[in-house]
C-alpha cells in the first residue's frame, strides 16, 4: 500500500515526494469531488499540531480538541481548519523539510532545548524546531534522533555534542548544510556519511562525539535515515534485514532508532475509532468474524482432561441450536493437555495452541523452555504461544531475547509461533514498539499482547502500536504477520472496537483468523448471545449458551 502525493502536478509515491509533503488540497469540482484524506495525511497534520503545542502556540486542551477533528476528517478539506491559524503551514503546501527551502530563511528564532537525553528509552527532535548554537545529545542504553531537515537555526553556526554509552544517536541534516564531524569511538562505530555540495548562503554545523559500546551516526542522506508510511516513521530496512540483526550492537541500534510513539496521538486515535458504530448487517458479519478469530482458552491450575474435552466440543459447535455458527480458530491449553485437545479436535481443522516457555512468567532456563516447546509440538500442537523474557528485555539484553525467540521458532517446526510480549510489564508504548519489532525480526508469526495473568492486559492503544508494527513490517518486507490481543476482552462491543482498529490501522487483509486472533475465554459466550439477538430480534439470556 503506497500513499501518492501531488508534487508540482505529478502524482508520485510518498517516499519520492518527501516525508513531510502533504497531499495538495482540492476543494472539488462537479467532475472531481474533494480528495479523500489518508491516515498519512491525518498523522502529518497531527504532527504539526504537536509541534505547535511544543512551541506554546496552542494549549493541551486545544490540542486534544483539534486532534479529534483531525482523526475524524474524511477529506483533505476537513484537515485545513485545525491548522488554519498556525503560521506558515497548510495542508496544501510542503512543510517540515522541503529540500528547496533556502537556508537563509531557516536562520533565526528563539532557540529550542539545549539537550536531548535518552536513558533506557528514546528521544527525538524533528519537524519545525529551532536548533540552538550549542546542543548536547546523550544516550545511555537508549536512542536519540535529531532530524534537522525541517529545523531552523538560531545562528549560522551550530555545534552538536553527541555522547552515546551503549546506545545510539542519529543526526540527519539537509543537503545544503555543511557538517564538520570529529570525535572518538571506543569499541564501536563513529560514522559520518558525506552529503552533496552545499549551496551559497549555507549554514554550518559541527558534530563532536564520544562513543562507548554504542554508535553515533551523522548523515545528510534523508532517504537512508527514515521512511514515512501513513505518517509513522520507521527505519529503512536493508534487504533481508541482515544489518539490523548482525550482532547485539546492530540490534540495539535498530530498535533504539525506531521513532518514539506519540502517546497522546495513539490514545486519541484509539478512543476515536472506539466510538464508531456499525449497522445491523455489518454487525452480524463482525460477530461471525470475531467468533472465527477466537482462541478458546483455558489456562488454570485446575484444568482437567474433561474440561478440555468440553471446551473442544464447544469449539466445534459453539451454538448447537444454530449450526451455521462459525467455529473458533483454535483451542489454547497447557502443554500436558495438548494431546487431549488434539484427540478431541481431530479432523475439524480447528488449531490446537499450547502456551510454553514457562508461561506466564518465562522464568526458567532456555533448555527447559525449549524442551517444553518440543513436548507440546510432539503432542500435536499446531501453534505455540511463548512468553519473552521481560527482565532481559527491560535490561536492554535484546540479543538474548532475540536468540531465544529464534531458538523457540526452530523448535516449533511447522507449528506457528505467537510471541507474547506481556505489554502490561513493558511500561511504555516505545517499549511495546521495540518488543514488537524484535519479535518480528526473530521470526514470530504473531505478536501477542499478554498472558492474561497481568494487569493491564490487552488495550486498544497498545494493539494500535502492534498493528502499526505488522503493517510497517509488511511494507518493508512483503511478509504478513499477525496480532493477537489477549486478556480483558469480554464483550461483543469490545471485540468490534478491535476489528475496527484492525481495518483502519493495518488494513482489511488482516481481518482473517490467519492474521488476527482474540485470546479469550468468556468472550465467545457474549458473541453467541449477541448473534442470537441479531438473528431473532430479541435478547437471549446466558442460560442459552454453555458455561465454560
From TrEMBL:
Family, as annotated: Belongs to the DeoC/FbaB aldolase family. DeoC type 2 subfamily.
Pathway(s): Carbohydrate degradation; 2-deoxy-D-ribose 1-phosphate degradation; D-glyceraldehyde 3-phosphate and acetaldehyde from 2-deoxy-alpha-D-ribose 1-phosphate: step 2/2
Reaction(s) catalysed by this chain's protein: 2-deoxy-D-ribose 5-phosphate = D-glyceraldehyde 3-phosphate + acetaldehyde
Domain DUF1707: residue ranges: 35-87
Assigned EC number: 4.1.2.4
Protein name per the record: Deoxyribose-phosphate aldolase
Alphabetical list of NCBIfam families matching this protein: deoC
Pfam families: DeoC, DUF1707
Lineage: Bacteria, Bacillati, Actinomycetota, Actinomycetes, Pseudonocardiales
Keyword terms, alphabetized: Lyase, Schiff base
Amino acid at each position: 500500500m503506497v500513499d501518492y502525493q501531488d508534487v508540482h502536478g505529478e502524482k508520485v509515491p510518498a517516499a519520492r515526494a518527501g516525508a513531510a509533503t502533504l497531499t495538495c488540497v482540492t476543494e472539488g469540482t462537479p467532475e472531481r469531488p474533494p480528495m479523500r484524506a489518508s491516515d498519512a495525511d491525518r498523522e502529518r497534520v497531527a504532527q504539526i499540531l504537536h509541534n505547535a503545542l511544543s512551541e506554546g502556540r496552542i494549549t493541551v486542551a486545544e490540542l486534544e480538541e483539534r486532534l479529534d477533528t483531525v482523526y475524524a476528517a474524511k477529506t483533505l478539506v476537513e484537515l485545513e481548519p485545525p491548522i488554519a491559524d498556525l503560521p506558515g503551514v497548510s495542508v496544501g503546501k510542503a512543510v517540515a523539510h522541503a529540500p528547496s527551502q533556502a537556508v537563509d530563511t531557516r536562520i533565526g528564532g528563539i532557540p529550542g532545548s539545549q539537550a536531548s537525553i535518552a536513558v533506557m528509552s528514546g528521544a527525538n527532535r524533528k519537524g519545525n524546531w529551532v536548533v540552538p548554537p550549542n546542543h548536547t545529545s546523550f544516550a545511555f542504553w537508549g536512542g536519540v534522533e535529531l532530524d534537522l531537515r525541517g529545523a531552523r537555526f538560531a545562528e549560522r553556526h551550530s555545534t552538536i555534542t553527541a555522547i552515546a554509552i551503549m546506545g545510539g544517536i542519529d543526526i540527519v541534516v539537509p543537503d545544503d548544510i555543511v557538517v564538520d564531524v570529529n570525535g572518538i569511538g571506543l569499541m564501536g562505530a563513529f560514522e559520518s556519511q558525506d552529503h552533496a555540495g552545499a549551496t551559497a548562503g549555507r549554514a554550518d554545523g559541527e558534530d563532536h562525539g564520544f562513543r562507548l559500546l554504542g554508535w553515533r551516526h551523522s548523515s545528510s542522506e534523508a532517504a537512508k535515515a527514515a521512511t514515512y508510511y501513513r505518517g509513522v516513521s520507521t527505519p529503512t530496512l536493508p534487504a533481508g534485514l541482515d544489518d539490523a540483526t548482525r550482532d547485539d550492537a546492530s540490534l540495539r541500534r535498530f530498535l533504539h532508532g525506531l521513532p518514539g510513539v506519540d502517546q497522546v496521538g495513539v490514545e486519541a486515535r484509539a478512543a476515536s475509532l472506539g466510538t464508531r458504530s456499525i449497522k445491523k448487517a455489518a454487525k452480524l458479519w463482525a460477530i461471525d468474524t470475531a467468533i472465527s478469530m477466537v482462541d478458546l482458552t483455558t489456562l488454570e491450575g485446575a484444568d482437567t482432561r474433561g474440561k478440555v474435552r468440553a471446551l473442544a466440543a464447544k469449539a466445534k459447535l459453539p451454538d448447537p441450536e444454530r449450526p451455521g455458527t462459525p467455529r473458533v480458530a483454535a483451542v489454547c491449553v497447557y502443554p500436558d493437555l495438548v494431546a487431549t485437545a488434539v484427540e478431541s479436535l481431530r479432523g475439524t481443522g480447528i488449531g490446537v495452541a499450547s502456551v510454553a516457555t514457562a508461561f506466564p512468567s518465562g522464568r526458567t532456563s532456555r533448555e527447559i523452555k525449549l524442551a517444553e516447546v518440543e513436548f507440546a509440538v510432539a503432542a500435536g500442537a499446531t501453534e505455540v504461544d511463548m512468553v519473552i523474557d521481560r527482565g532481559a528485555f527491560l535490561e536492554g539484553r535484546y540479543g538474548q531475547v532475540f536468540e531465544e525467540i529464534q531458538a523457540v521458532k526452530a523448535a516449533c517446526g511447522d507449528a506457528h509461533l505467537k510471541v507474547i510480549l506481556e505489554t502490561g510489564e513493558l511500561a511504555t508504548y516505545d517499549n511495546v514498539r521495540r518488543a514488537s519489532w524484535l519479535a518480528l525480526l526473530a521470526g514470530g508469526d504473531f505478536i501477542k499482547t499478554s498472558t492474561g495473568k497481568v494487569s493491564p492486559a490487552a488495550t486498544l492503544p497498545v494493539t494500535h502500536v502492534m498493528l502499526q508494527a505488522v503493517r510497517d513490517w509488511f511494507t518493508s518486507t512483503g511478509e504478513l504477520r499477525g496480532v493477537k490481543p489477549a486478556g480483558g476482552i469480554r464483550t461483543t462491543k469490545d471485540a468490534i472496537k478491535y476489528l475496527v482498529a484492525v481495518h483502519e490501522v493495518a488494513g482489511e487483509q488482516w481481518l482473517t483468523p490467519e492474521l488476527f486472533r482474540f485470546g479469550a475465554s468468556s468472550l465467545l459466550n457474549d458473541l453467541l448471545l449477541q448473534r442470537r439477538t441479531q438473528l431473532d430480534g430479541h435478547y437471549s439470556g446466558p442460560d442459552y449458551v454453555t458455561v465454560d
